[in-house]
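Re: the request from the purification team.
They wanted to know what the chain is likely to look like in 3D before they choose a buffer screen. I agreed to run a prediction and write the result into the notebook, where they can find it.
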Amino acid sequence: MATSLVLGPAAFLTAGSAEAAVPTTTCTVTKSLTEGQFDVSGKGLTPGAKVIIRGGGNQISKTADANGSVSVKSVFPNNSKVTLIVGKKSNPKETVSCGTAQQAQQKDAQDQLKKGFAAGFAATRTACTEKAPPQGVAPLDPNFEKGFKQGVDAAINSKFCQDKIQNDQ
C-alpha cells in the first residue's frame, strides 16, 4: 500500500510536466489604431506553421514567425467570429477561436473608460478641484471622457478631498 502511494504522485508529476511543455496556441482580436480595422494575433504556434485567419468572409493566409507568432490587420464585421486555423483548411491540425470584432470594441471601450477614470481621479485628487479632460490634436475617445468625469467625481467626493475642502473653508 505504501508503494502505490509513493508511485501515484510521481506518476502524476511526470504526466503533468509533459503536458506543461506543450505550448498552447492563443489568438486575440483587438481594435486597431486604423479606423474600422482590427488586429489579430496568434501566439504559441510552431515556427513556420501555415495559418489561416478567417472571419466575416475574409480569409488571410500567414506563416508563423520564428517566435511562433502571427499577426494581421483586417476589417471584420462586428458580429463575425474570428478563427485561427493551423494547417490546411481541409485538414486542420488545430482551430482556435479569437473572439469577435464586437468583443474587441467592447474591451477597448472598457479600457478607455478605466484609463479616463484613473486620469480624472489623479488630476483632481492633487488639488481637489474639478478638472477638464486634457485636450490634444485629436478628439478624445468618448469612453475616456466619460471615465475622466467619473474619476473627477470620485476624487471630489473622496474623504481626502472632502476633508481638504472643509479645512480650506
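For the purification team: Confidence is low (pLDDT under 50) at residues 3-21.
Please add any questions underneath this entry.
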